[in-house]
Amino acid sequence: MKLNGITDVFFDLDHTLWDFDKNSALTFEKIFKINDVSLSIDDFLLHYVPINFKYWKLYREEKIEKEALRYGRLNDAFEAVGFQAEEWLIYKLSKDYITHLSTFNHLFENTFEILDYLSVNYNLHIITNGFDEVQHKKLTQSKIIKYFKTVTNSEMVGVKKPNPEIFNFALELANTKVSQSIMIGDSYEADILGAKNIGMDVVFFDLNNMTLDNNIKQIDNLMQLKKYL
């Protein structure tokens, strides 16, 4: 069912448009080679992915700072896989990861197609918890920055999704109202509940077949947004 009265569409970036897991895996493959780290990427990622998720939750909840996230997720993953990495190497890999992450820019299927479709009738925006210097590179080098009128990141605002302040900041930056806006994202906690808490409509981009309240619109392919917009 098409939604009426929507003028502004807000997207999350990582895991929604930009294929974070794929690009991250390729980045680790690259920096392990650069730094002569003899470790199976598959074994490492098996531990790293849930550890990274845990650290981002702590970061989102303002319980740790950016540097603690960058170091801790690597240190814990190496410990979990039984690889002894000296402190200097973890810091080096942490820095190299940020440097090289945006050199890989795989997007989810139909990203360009849906942005082309939506940009005709809607103002498009980004709200992301990602780091400022990295997110700008991702948007630029993946060639999707041209679609977005505004980009709001957590470092600009000083708080992270689901904090209502970041959504209100993004609405003000976009010069729009909550009643005319919709949020599309993959994080149920950060994107969906965060937006709903300020009264914004939402679409949950869910690749994991989560069972949710029937009142929440869900898609597993970006082209399914055509049902609503």
Automatic annotation (TrEMBL):
Domain of life from the UniProt record: Bacteria
InterPro entries the record matches: HAD-like_sf, HAD-SF_hydro_IA, HAD-SF_hydro_IA_YjjG/PynA, HAD_2, HAD_sf, PGP-like_dom2, Pyrimidine_5'-ntase_YjjG
Name the UniProt record assigns to this protein: YjjG family noncanonical pyrimidine nucleotidase
